[in-house]
Amino acid sequence: MTSKKLVNSVAGCADDTLAGLVACDPNLQLLQGHRVALRSDLDSLKGRVALLSGGGSGHEPAHAGFIGKGMLTGVIAGAVFTSPAVGSILAAIRAVAQAGTVGTLLIVKNYTGDRLNFGLAREQARAEGIPVEMVVIGDDSAFTVLKKAGRRGLCGTVLIHKVAGALAEAGVGLEEITKRVSTVAKAMGTLGVSLSSCSVPGSKPTFELSADEVELGLGIHGEAGVHRIKMATADEIVRLMLDHMTNTSNASHVPVQPGSSVVMMVNNLGGLSFLELGIIADAAVRSLEGHGVKIARALVGTFMSALEMPGFSLTLLLVDEPLLKLIDAETTAAAWPNVAKVYVTGRKRSRAAPTEPQEAPGSTTAGGSASKQMALVLERVCTTLLGLEEHLNALDRAAGDGDCGTTHSRAARAIQGWLKEGPPPASPAQLLSKLSILLLEKMGGSSGALYGLFLTAAAQPLKAKTDLPAWSAAMDAGLEAMQKYGKAAPGDRTMLDSLWAAGQELQAWKSPGADLFQALTKAVKSAEAAAEATKNMEAGAGRASYISSARLDQPDPGAVAAAAILRAILEVLQSQ
To answer: Does the keyword field hold Nucleotide-binding (predicted)?
Structure first.
């Protein structure tokens, strides 16, 4: 079965993607009759060396994303994973020559088709009297024994684009640029890994992996790698890759040693999430610095992809200060990241947390009967929520991501851990404020934010008084805050429905001579009835609002949890 792709046609996808890039970037132009993109200010390059690169499509943003002042002059694109035509390469060389450039350097990844086609175009151009040189980049560190074909050209080629572009922009001649980038390329290595394959438009995946396998040492055309290893953590896979890349017994290793300075690239092969990419980058930084390697610059993103392949490659380039200046030189290329021109290693990566505001004297007093009673209430609430975890998750699966019970259990465990540290504050306002901070930090999700809002607002009326009218006002303040920021209203099938129903009954506390338990008992029963009634409501807020009401035949889990919390509070207070 072929994979789904958002294309107009399989045959035209390479032309369409290049046309789209040029249409959105005024700095680029297409060369008529060819799949070639060039700088739109080509005439400004008179007297300078032009840089051309390219290869098969499917590696976006390479190569056209790296056209610009300080990088490439133009690129020639082939069909997906296919070398570009000789005629188009020759046309690009002629175009830059006729614009007044003094020579052209072809930067070619080491693949047979690319070497042949770019090489043939070079020979034809030289026969026409055009000065053309060619560097073939092979930065693959996968093979421990070098084969006749040499090392494959991978993401490190982008760094060569950058170095060559900086030299050309500075007015360096063709021969000198060729010599210097050839030297730089020898101090570089790249290794890729993927969780599965990719698929060329109109075709099936190029290889299959079982659920517990990853492919190590693969190229950028969907070809299989050199090893299949068992799935492991990001830390373990990154460590394995770096060990392989720097092992001196590996013929294609990068000669990195403690004290070496490197430019590190973490390249998304196309289908990896940014979340995973950040984790991998962190693992790579920790591993390299743990071996005494200094990271001069770190580039993290998508630079040379393999369609939708869910994997990444790591590139290491040994650098000194002169080379760093070339890496740091200005460029207008759209796909080159805005990298800070300072060392990554040695930089302070955190700052002290802000100091907490000073609390009023005596406000944090713990112990005493009030504190013990609050601890008992909280323990019962926690036990209740932990017991409801699976039930709440089951209710949530109908309308959410099935984690409502897990979220509330996380809050319960956080509260239990906090109680083990010592008795809670005797002051109700301080207690609610502390719980608010705890839930905002530990509970997570929208539930954590809503409970945090509720408790923060509810604490304010209790700073001055703690009688029944103040507790009723606290409930009102909490409900108002939830509605203001959560945008839910009674009847929207949320946790607010239970709390709102309870809040209406607690208005009785504002009357002189009000009875604590009479109003609280009615509040709990109203909350439970409101929670049950949510199964007949159409969701007006929250994630459930995106689900058809026909599928919502169970009560809202947040409302059920809120009612259960109120029931636990009542039962403890009645038992005292």
So the answer is: yes
